[in-house]
Amino acid sequence: MVHEKVLVSPLVTLDLPLTAYLPEDYIADEAMRLLVYQRMAEAQQASAVRSLRQELRDRFGEPPAPAIHLLTWLHIKALALQAGVNSIITSEDEFILRLPEGNSDGRQRLLRRFGRDATLRIGPQFVRLQRRAIGDAWAPRLMQVLDVLGRTDG
User: Fold this and answer.
1) Model-level pTM greater than 0.85?
2) Same structural domain, 105 and 143
3) 97 and 76 in one domain?
4) 102, 117: one domain
5) Domain contains 65
6) 36-51 residues labelled b (16+ CB within 10 A) or e (exposed)
7) 51 and 97, same domain (yes or no)
């Protein structure tokens, strides 16, 4: 009888405007870099991503931009998983978050928090965040929306 550990991961599709990778001059050892990538793939919660960020700083120094982008991508993925978001698609004008069916609680939290925000449109199955209006601050803004959407404390 064979026992195998199978990592079943919920799926979320992310199309984000980031160049994200671990540069060879940041983690020179290929085996170590692959091990870090593997650990990143297993990080399913924002707290795990924060721990990885700190570990990278401690072991290899301050991460360069592509590694920071990778950590940002992982953080957004973790928040999207928590919120049950199926996908985040980037167009020239907006970020489109596809919401799970029946997430009326999350939608209501978004309306309470962002109801008067002109850069955010909240529909029954989508949230649209105006990319051009937000500019370079899109990542923290997207994380804020995902955080509110994924809360379970009301």
Assistant:
1) yes
2) yes
3) no
4) yes
5) yes
6) beeebeebbebebbee
7) no
Judge if 91 and 125 occupy the same domain. Answer: yes
The tens-digit pLDDT sequence of the chain (154 residues) is 555 555 555 688 999 999 999 999 999 999 999 999 999 998 989 999 999 999 999 999 999 999 999 999 999 999 999 998 999 999 999 999 998 777 678 888 999 998 889 999 998 889 999 999 999 999 999 999 999 998 876 5
Task: List the structure tokens of 26.
Answer: 């940041």
Q: 41, 60, 43, 63: which is closest to 51 by C-alpha?
A: 43
Tokens of 98: 């596809």
**Is the Cα torsion angle 42, 47, 51, 54 positive or negative in sign?**
positive
Pairing of β 87-90 and β 13-14: parallel
- Give the residue carrying structure tokens 């999207």: 80
Question: CA–CA separation, 83 vs 142, rounded Å?
Answer: 12
Domain boundaries, position 138: 87-150
